[in-house]
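Before relying on records like the one below, remember that each one covers exactly one chain. Contacts with other chains, cofactors or solvent are not represented anywhere in the record.
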Amino acid sequence: MLVRFLWQNWGNIASLAGLIIGIVVLIVAKGAKTAAIQAREQARRRDLTEELADLARKMEQVGLFAAQRKWDIVQLRAEESHSTCTGAITRWGDQLTVGCRNKLLNVISFTRSIAELTYGPVPTEVDRLQILSTQLRTRELVDSVLGECHRIQEGTQE
C-alpha cells in the first residue's frame, strides 16, 4: 500500500522535498549574508581604529619634536596627520557618529594650523607654545574618537 502510494505520487513527494531543501538553503544563505556583512563592518572599524591609533602616535611625535624645536619634523608629522585624518573621514565617514566626524574635522583644522606655523621663518617661542597647545587639544580629540571606536568595536564582538 505504501509502496503503491509512493510509486503513484513520487513527483509530488520529490517536489515537496525540493521545496523543503530550498527553504533551508534560503535560511542558511540569509544567515551567511548577515554574518558576512557584520564581519566586513567589524574589519572596517578595526582598520579605522588602527588608523586613528597611528594618527595619535603622529600627534604625540608632533609634541615631542615641537618641544625639541625640530620644526622640519613637526611640519612633516603635522602634514602626515592632516592626510591621515582626511583619509579617515573620506573612507569611514559613514561609520562615524556626527560627534566623531566633527572632532576629526577639528583635528584637520588643528593639524593644518600646526603645519602652517612651521612654514617660513623659524617659529617664535609664542608659536612653539601655540603648537604645543594645539597638539595637546588635537591629541585629546583623537583619543576621544579612538575610544569611541574601541567601544563600538567591543560592542559588536559580543
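The longest helix spans residues 10-67.
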